[in-house]
Design goal:
Helices cover about 35% and strands about 25% of the residues. The chain is an alpha/beta fold and about 350 residues long. It has 2 domains: about 5-140, Alpha-D-Glucose-1,6-Bisphosphate, Chain A, domain 4, CATH 3.30.530; about 160-344, Rossmann fold, CATH 3.40.50.150. The strands form 2 sheets. A 7-stranded mixed sheet has the order 9-8-7-10-11-13-12, sandwiched between helices. β4 and β5 (about 85-90) form a beta hairpin. The longest helix has 19 residues, at about 20-35. The protein is elongated and about 70 Å long. The protein binds S-adenosylmethionine (SAM).
């Protein structure tokens, strides 16, 4: 029989005050729910009732005065219907920061129920479900991947929203793209990896219509907020989707833009072919990206740089030609970036 009363405890330290940490915790739990499925709904109350395929009861209680959030879950028809509890609380530390504590209890009684009578299973659960995932997540490789996603490859969170609302450092690239495309009211522009919609906002002032595609749901939401008027007027459509499988029919747009996205793509050739597929004959392509010599600088810092693809000017032009584009030319922008221009 498994020992009763085991607890998993995880503590995270933050320099944020408890009030700020509590606010951030709630926001991050909501984002995590959006990606991984609802574990921490934003309101107190039952999560789901027993039904085939989901035979358990769960309830969340949020106490914003005491900065704690509790999730109770009870199996139905096994483990003596014991209750497992996950309590997350934010407490002050001595330096004005916070300790974010997670304590999980009751899981051991479920592991120790009839089906899992072996004591070794208790440790098995703890290693498999808690220690190994945390160990994996804390490796340099995993943290590097996570940071790259969080800030650039699939932006998420408050800092990403602040950055991409108006990404100052990206304006030289935006201007180079707009100059090259010379959009007019007859154009239908596609921006791939539209982030917070700043380039779309500027492009729409030419009177064109536009479509923004991005695989970050949060960036699609931000683009929407930043371009409410154009969306309301039907001049801008925002679609979650990937550069490698654009959610558009063939021959749909007259121009395609990519700003500070191309070097992050895992399959750049595939993305170029997709851009060509959706462009009308003689449609224009404009891609602003980071050249190899700026690798490791603020334009492409680590750990993002090691996960990105850099091409010489010639390689970039050759790639576009190999994807079926004509007139592929790479020029340099004022900030040393690469501007690839081509026609379908
Ligand atoms: C560095 S941000 C640039 C955002 C915007 N173009 C700008 O310059 O502010 C890269 C954007 O491309 C998106 N992105 C990256 N890879 C993508 C892919 N394979 N498919 C769709 N979007 C992608 C990210 O979600 C992110 O919003």
């Amino acid at each position: 029989m498994a020992r009763r009363g085991s607890t998993v405890k995880v503590e995270v330290r933050s320099t944020a005050s408890p009030a700020v940490a509590w606010h951030q915790l709630r926001e991050e739990l909501a984002l995590s729910d959006a990606v991984h499925g609802a574990i921490w709904p934003g309101r107190s109350g039952p999560i789901h009732k027993p039904q085939p395929g989901s035979p358990s009861l769960a309830e969340v209680t949020i106490d914003s005065e005491r900065y704690q959030i509790r999730r109770l879950s009870r199996p139905v028809g096994w483990a003596g219907e014991t209750t497992s509890e996950v309590l997350i609380s934010v407490r002050p530390d001595r330096q004005g920061g916070s300790r974010i504590l997670l304590e999980a209890t009751g899981w051991d009684q479920m592991v120790g129920s009839e089906l899992g009578q072996e004591a070794g299973d208790l440790l098995g659960w703890a290693v498999d479900q808690v220690l190994a995932p945390i160990s994996r997540a804390a490796t340099a490789e995993a943290v590097g991947d996570w940071l790259t996603d969080r800030l650039a490859r699939r932006p998420q969170g408050g800092r990403a929203r602040r950055t991409y609302k108006n990404p100052q450092a990206h304006w030289p690239g935006f201007e180079a793209i707009l100059d090259l495309l010379a959009l007019s009211p007859t154009d239908r522009l596609l921006e791939v990896g539209c982030g917070g919609g700043a380039l779309l906002h500027a492009a729409l002032t030419t009177g064109c219509t536009a479509i923004g595609v991005d695989h970050s749901p949060e960036m699609i939401r931000l683009s929407h907020q930043q371009n409410l008027k154009a969306v309301g007027e039907g001049r801008l459509v925002l679609i979650p989707g990937s550069a490698e499988a654009l959610p558009l029919p063939a021959l749909w747009v007259t121009a395609v833009a990519m700003a500070t996205v191309f070097f992050l793509l895992p399959e750049p050739m595939c993305a170029l072919q997709e851009c060509r597929r959706v462009l009308r004959p003689r449609g224009r392509l404009a891609v602003f990206t980071i050249p190899p010599e700026l690798r490791g600088t603020p334009a492409a810092p680590e750990p993002m740089a090691s996960r990105a693809h850099f091409f010489t000017d010639q390689e970039l032009a050759d790639l576009a030609t190999a994807a079926g584009f004509s007139d592929a030319v790479v020029t340099r922008t004022a900030n040393g970036g690469q501007l690839l221009g081509a026609h379908r």
